[in-house]
Amino acid sequence: MNVLFIGDIVGPDATAYVAHRVPELRQQYALDLVIANGENCAVSAATPWQGFGMSTGLVELLLQNGVDIITSGNHGWDGPEAQIVHQHPQVLRPFNMPDGTAGKGIIHLNIAGEDVTVLNLGGKTALDEALPVYPAWLSAELRGNVIVDFHSDAAWEKMIFATAIDGKAAAVLGTHTHEPTIPMYILPGGTAYVTDVGMTSPTGSPGGFPLIHFATKYKGEDFSALPPYQMSTGEIILGAVRLRIEDGRTLDIERIY
Ligand SMILES: [Fe+2]
Ligand SMILES: [Fe+2]
């Protein structure tokens, strides 16, 4: 089966761009499954709560235009619609969260007769509340072709995890940093591994928006008086990988720009 995995979508314009491109990509690459990390799809200068999360409207826009599953991360719960968004059957959040956290972290699908599991994990460097990843992985019910979105800051954590579970997942695909990493691997057991798929976002600043609020806070200064976040204004780029998966192993992987 052919799978497209789209890294962190940053902002409504990038969301609209994905919605516009996915139908064409589905045809071009004969895609069976499209997964997109949407944790930041609603970030916008116009977002009244100045959060980074997801909205029901943008999630629906993605799902109506050929995205099958939306994964998430530390920002998934930002914003006033977080509870409703996480009730959606096609929306995931990191699996390794404490009991009582809104949403779910795993989904089982059957696509053209093949079982597929999409599992969303989160590292502690991205989510303070996250529980240890490996025990959570062991507790997950895995069926068929297993595709993992590992949302974490820590490259080594993702690399070691992928090596530890090589052969038990078809792919471990990193998200969260928004910065695409160059090498892509197929480990000896058949697990594809990418440290970070990279952002789908307007270009012009690291992360998809000028980081002045982060930098001000970093310097120990008050950032509350700064104007709301502004999105970058450059051309929108797609951060995505396409995988060909058979019998739980990835046969080949390529970047799609
Ligand atoms: Fe993100
Ligand atoms: Fe994140």
Superfamily (CATH H level) name:
Metallo-dependent phosphatases
Helix content: 10-25%
Could you tell me how far the N terminus lies from the C terminus, measured between alpha carbons in angstroms? Answer: 20 Å
Low-confidence region ranges: none
Tell me the CATH topology.
Purple Acid Phosphatase, chain A, domain 2
By secondary-structure content and strand pairing, the structural class works out as alpha/beta
What ligands does this structure carry? fe (ii) ion
Number of strands: 13
Q: What composes the largest sheet?
A: 6 strands, mixed
* CATH class descriptor: Alpha Beta
Write a brief caption for the model.
With 257 residues, the protein is of the alpha/beta class.
Please give a structural write-up:
- This protein is an alpha/beta fold and 257 residues long.
- The chain has a single domain (2-256), classed as Purple Acid Phosphatase, chain A, domain 2 (4-Layer Sandwich).
- It is 22% helix and 25% strand.
- It contains 6 helices and 13 strands.
- The chain has helices at residues 12-28, 56-64, 82-87, 133-139, 155-164, 212-218; strands at residues 2-6, 33-37, 69-71, 106-111, 114-122, 145-151, 171-175, 185-186, 192-194, 201-202, 236-237, 240-246, 249-256.
- The protein has a 6-stranded mixed sheet, covered by helices on one side. It has a 5-stranded mixed sheet with strand order 3-2-1-12-13, with helices on one face. It has a two-stranded antiparallel ribbon with strand order 10-11.
- Helix 2 (56-64) links the parallel strand 2 and strand 3 (69-71).
- The model has no long low-confidence stretch (mean pLDDT 95).
- The protein binds fe (ii) ion (2 copies).
- Residues 8, 39-40, 73, 75, 176, 178 line the site of one fe (ii) ion.
- One fe (ii) ion binds at residues 8, 39-40, 73, 75, 176, 178.
